[in-house]
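Q&A log
Question type: sequence-to-structure
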Amino acid sequence: MNTHDLKIFEAVAANGSFTKAAEAMFTVQSNVTARIKSLEEEFGAELFTRTSRKVALTAAGQTLMQYSKQVGHLIAEAKKDIQNADQVKGHIKIGCIETTMALKAPGIINSFADRYPDVELEFKSAMMGSLISDVLNYKLDAAFVSAPVNNAGLEQVLINAEQLVILAPSHVKKINDAINAIPLKIVVFDQGCIFRARLESWLGSKGIIQYKSIVVNSIEGIINFVEAGLGISILPEDVIGRYYAGRKINTFAMNKEIGTMTTVLITRKDVPQSPALKAFMAIY
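Response status: OK
Response body:
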């Protein structure tokens, strides 16, 4: 077995076909078939179930896939470390939730670039579940997410704790006036957003389970919709104070249990950190 065999194995799994895998790997189908057969003989297990239409990973194949991705990642990191042994350079991918991307990523990038100009820093914004999955599957080197994160394969570094507040239009002077509206409308990101989950939990603690959700895809959208009187929402207090203090909205405090959001930076435990990632972790 060699690492190219594992690449062929991953290509078959990704394409669900020996023929398509051969095309993706610029080889012939007979070679793909031979390499998979060789792997199955070496591991003493069937790696794919085969039908006339497609192939799919068996339980043994899924186990090998986890190790294959880890091997590929380790080899890539080894190459980078050897090539950059005397300096901090390279490319690291960092994930974050929407508020971090929009409001904090530019400052992080500028600060890091000043210290390490030879490191290319790439940010990706996504929901928390996707970020965790991408770190576990080596698509991201690290990610800023909300605690708690219950996964034994991840290392966590505490970044900060933020207080969340309820947002309402400026004419709302008491939060009970807003949440007792019929119908109650909430302005939120899509399912999977930590802010939406906290707002729904807070409403649930008030015994409120009936409301209409208005889904938007940006912080600015949330502010605009709340300001226009279309509903209530939730965001970090610091975000409102820094960037939206002059808008026609009122904020209302939440209890600490639901209203405190702790951010951690997660990385994989089972792989060495590159010099570039170590430098990034040292700053944050």
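Response note: Residues 130 and 201 are 21 Å apart (CA to CA).
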